[in-house]
Structure formats: C-alpha cells, structure tokens
Write a structure and sequence with these properties.
single chain, 406 residues, mainly alpha, 12% strand, coiled coil
C-alpha cells in the first residue's frame, strides 16, 4: 500500500480558498514523515489551479481528531452573513409596518366610499326632482288629452234624476195583486227584498207603503245586477268586469294608483265602444236576454198577476234601457260615479242626515230622526275630470229615505 502523499503548505492554503474544492477534504499528515520522491511526484502531477473568485464564499478549516497520531482537516463553507432581522410580529401575525399599511389603506378606502356615497345622494336628489316634474307633466298631459265621452255633472245628474222619476212613477202604478204571506225560497231576488227591511211583506200588503217597497226593490236590483257590470259591452261584459275587479283589489293596497284604475276603465270603455261600431256589432241579443231575465225575476219576486204583467214589463224594459245607458256613461268618466247606501251605526240605527238624505215627507217630531226605510240610493262622485282629488266626494243626488214606522 503506497503512502498518502503530503501536500505542501502553500498548496493547502490555495486549496482552502479555491471554489473547485469546496466541500472536499484534504488530508494532511502532521506527524508521519513523507518520502521526498513522493512529494516531488505529487508536485509534478498537480495541475495549476485557477485563482480564487472574490465572490465565492469563504471556506473555513475545521479539524476532527481521529487518533493520537493523525489529524484530518476538513474544508467547509463559511457561514453566510444573515441580513438584518425583521421586527418581531404582533399577536395577529402581522408586523407593525404591515399593520400600519392596512390601517392606512382602510382609511383611504373609507374616504373613497364616503365620497362616492355623497355623489350618489346628490344624483338621487336630482333624479327625484326630475321624476316629480315628470309626474306633474304626465298629469297635465292626461288632463289635456282626456278620453272621449267626458261629461260634466250637469249632463249626468239629469239622466240619473230621470231614471229615479221613472222608477217612482212605476211604483205608484204597481198593481196590488194577492196578499204576500211568504215568498218562495227559490226566488232568486229574494235577498234584495230582505235587504230593504225585515218587515217588507207587511209594507207590500199596505197600499200606502207598497210604492216605497217597490221603488226600493227595483233600485236594489239595478245597483246589484246592472250598474258596474259592463253589460252594455255585450258578451265580453263578464271578462271586463272580472279584470276591473282584479285591478280594483290591487289599488286597495295602494290608493295612489286609483287614478290609473279610473283612467284604465275610461280608456277600455272607449276602445270597446269603438270596436263595436267598427265591427257593426250590436249587443242586442245579449242585452235582450239580460233584460228578459231581470224582468221575469222581478215579477216572480213580487208575485205580479198575469193580467197586469204587460204594462209592467214595458215600463221595466224602459227603466233597464236607461240604466244600461247611464252605466255606460259612468264607465266612460275618469271621475268615479257610484250609487251609495248609508250604513247603520253601532246601535243598528240609521240616523237621518240632511246633507246626504231627503225625506219622503215632513217629520212630525223634532229632534233626531231615525231612518226606517231607504227608498233610493244616493249618487256620489269621487274625483274630477282631470283624474285628481279622489278623496273628495260630491253628492249628485241625495238618498231617498223614510222615517215612518210600520
């Protein structure tokens, strides 16, 4: 076994600084003598080494004892210099510098949002002002472009007054007929009779009070079966009525939209009438069946004798024609026209109100008067031709009442 060659001291120092031998170990025999020829041979075979690079990491020599005769020297990379340590983190894991940065960013973001909010509020105020002005312009436009068929009170009230006169005149001519004891339960219009007064049979058998019951009964039938039903439109009447009732239910939760409902009713009436004229369709067949049915049920409820029916039928037919025509005119109006019945108070009494009612005769007693019988309803107008003021009521025709007992 050949001896390990010894490396001269100068070469050892060079190898320590050379990057080509980083991590390599150069063994140096310190206590054993070396053969001069071996040393020369090693010097001849050793290649020249490049100069050390300044940027290379420094190497540090460390020795490890192996035994008492030899010592190994190991070349290792020197520890790199560490940069300055960052400041200690806080409890949240963020350094104070980062925390300040987040706080500043939050403040900047808050100021930006606050500025944006102020801009939006200004824009909202401008839009609200424009929207309000647009609403006023639209109201003026509607007022200047009214649907056709708009009538004044002086046009409608006389028609209603004439209808009332015809009904009163017929009730005065109504034949006595047989004594009414118990109306048959299958009579369809029996609820209208019962709604007049519980003692309607007694008054029908009284010649002096019979006309009032007849008049009140005819009015109840007209307000329940004719007015507000769009019968003048013919076969399409039920569909139009259902649609208006559906829209009316919506406006109950939003009274501000009642003007839109009245405008819709007026415009729809106008379109329906134009369509009937253009198509040359007359709802005479539908109206004929309607009138015959109403007249027959009235006669059956009041038990009119056969020999007296002819004259009664003709007058009832004329009354129905006037009522249908008046209902068509009401439907064309932007203002609402309604037949109104007063309601009893908490004591189940209806107190006479001279602003709303008219008596059938002068009262015999002074003081508070209690209404015993409502003969005819009041005609009330809500709103005006411009589609405004629906919270204001105007009495077009007072309610006919009687305070006479029975």
């Amino acid at each position: 076994m050949s001896p390990i060659p010894s490396i001269p001291q100068s070469h050892t120092q060079s190898s320590i600084q050379s990057p080509t031998e980083t991590g390599g170990a150069v063994l140096e025999e310190s206590k054993h003598s070396q053969d001069p020829e071996s040393v020369a041979e090693n010097e001849d075979h050793e290649r020249p080494r490049p100069p050390s690079t300044p940027s290379s990491p420094l190497l540090k020599a460390e020795t490890f004892p192996k035994d008492k005769y030899c010592q190994h020297t190991v070349s290792q990379p020197a520890k790199e210099l560490t940069p300055l340590e960052e400041p200690a983190c806080n409890m949240t894991g963020e350094s104070p510098t980062a925390q300040m940065t987040l706080q500043e960013a939050s403040e900047v973001n808050y100021r930006s949002l606050q500025t944006r909010n102020e801009e939006l509020e200004e824009r909202y105020a401008e839009l609200w002002k424009d929207w309000k002005q647009l609403g006023e312009d639209l109201s003026d436009l509607r007022a200047n472009n009214q649907p056709l068929g708009q009538l004044n009170d002086t046009d409608l009230i006389p028609s209603a007054t004439q209808l009332k006169y015809n009904i009163s005149n017929l009730s005065q001519q109504w034949p006595g007929g047989r004594q009414m004891k118990n109306a048959p339960k299958e009579v369809q219009y029996l609820p209208y009779l019962q709604s007049i007064t519980p003692g309607y049979r007694t008054l029908l058998n009284d010649p002096d009070r019979r006309p009032q019951i007849i008049e009140a009964f005819i009015w109840r039938v007209l307000t329940g079966e004719v007015f507000g039903r769009f019968h003048w439109a013919g076969e399409i009447a039920p569909s139009v009525g259902d649609l208006e009732n559906w829209l009316a239910a919506i406006t109950e939760s939003d009274p501000s939209r009642y003007s839109d409902l009245r405008m819709w009713t007026s415009k729809t009436t106008e379109l329906l009438l134009e369509t009937l004229v253009d198509q040359e369709q007359e709802p005479s067949g539908y109206l004929g069946r309607l009138k015959r049915g109403i007249v027959g049920r009235i006669l059956k409820a009041l038990r009119v004798p056969e020999n007296s029916k002819q004259g009664i039928v003709l007058q009832l037919d004329d009354i129905l024609d006037r009522a249908l025509e008046l209902d068509k005119e009401f439907s064309q109006q932007v203002a609402e026209w309604e037949w109104h019945y007063a309601e009893a108070n908490c004591e189940e009494r209806l107190v006479y109100d001279q602003n709303l009612m008219v008596l059938d005769g002068l009262p015999k007693k002074k003081g508070q008067k209690v209404v015993k019988l409502v003969v005819s309803p009041a005609l009330v107008r809500r709103g005006d031709t411009k589609g405004k003021n629906y919270d204001q009521e105007t009495i077009g025709m007072k309610m006919g009442v009687s305070c006479k007992g029975f």
